[in-house]
Amino acid sequence: MQTKTQRFKKSQRTFRAVSGLSLEKFNQLYSELVPLYEKAEHQRLLKTNRRRKAGGGRKKGLLLEDQLLMLLMYYRLYISQEFLGILFNLHNCNVSRQINYIGPLLARIFKIPTKKIKLTEAELTEEEIIEFFVDATEQQIQRPGKRQKRYYSGKKKKHTLKNQIVVDRKGKIRTVTKSIPGKKHDKKLFDETKPILPRGSNFTGDLGYYGAEGVTLPNKKPKGKKLTKEEKRFNKELSRRRITVEHSFGKMKIYQILSQRFRNPLSKHSLIFKNIAGLHNLMFA
């Protein structure tokens, strides 16, 4: 009997449309997930506080390959867990349980730091000055029951969560901050979570980081005056390079769980955002 994953694999185009990954990248991710999953299962079965003997209790109901595809489909399409349950012949409680089990394992594969940027020896010797691009993005959330002002973004006129990423020239996401309430300004977020750069590298940002130390910014138009031709030329060149980080955000947001209004508990947003940054790197960087 064919698994759901095997059926979707018959069409590469369909598989990428529902998962966000090519078949090759999915197989690569799956091969890295297998040993982590087996180790986690071994530790779970050997817990000393188990109420049942090993092998007892609820069964997973899906092979690991299908569990991974189900998680990717949830990220990519952001359909309800009830509908996923119909597709994979599971109760929605089992869908939630298996998604929550696989998510942290993916984070251990991607290992995207929150502050310190690490480069290989080849990357350090590739260029004398390495340029990194920093920017933040916001995602709408459901209106919180408490402390609403903390999450209200004056820029978006909505309740949001904010994340800041650092991207290199090739579009690889190097750091991702934890999700924070959208009220916080980009500069303040940068000051509080300033990434640690390797020697001989610098930051480039937009005017949202005006006043931040160590960030190359476009020239700001003086009040009542105009920018010179040289300043406009500098801004245009800077914008041409900085578009890399905007492209990274665009590619991440093909995953509808980051594009639509976030319906999950806010405590899960950081993990989900980091996992999708890792999927972006796997697919595009």
Strand content: 5-15%
Q: Which overall shape is indicated by the principal axes computed on the Cα atoms?
A: globular
The span between the termini is 36 Å
Give the strand tally: 7
Low-pLDDT stretches are: none
Order of helices and strands: HHHHHHHEHEEEEHEEHHH
User: How much helix is in the residues?
Assistant: 40-55%
Mean pLDDT: 91
For the sheet with most strands, the description reads: 7 strands, mixed
Structural class: alpha/beta
* Rg calc: 22 Å
**Alpha plus pi helix count:** 12
Report on the architecture of this protein.
This protein has 285 residues and is α/β, with parallel strands linked by helices. It is built from 12 helices and 7 strands. Strands 1, 2, 3, 4, 5, 6 and 7 form a 7-stranded mixed sheet that branches. A hairpin with a 5-residue loop joins β3 and β4 (173-176). The chain is globular, with a radius of gyration of 22 Å.
Give a quick rundown of the structure.
The protein has 285 residues and is of the alpha/beta class.
Give structural attributes.
12 helices; 7 strands; alpha/beta
Give the topology, please.
Blueprint: H1 4-8, H2 12-19, H3 23-45, H4 64-77, H5 81-88, H6 92-110, H7 121-126, E1 130-140, H8 148-151, E2 152-153, E3 158-167, E4 173-176, E5 180-181, H9 186-192, E6 201-204, E7 215-216, H10 229-252, H11 256-259, H12 269-284
Helix pairs in contact: 3-6, 4-6, 5-6, 6-12
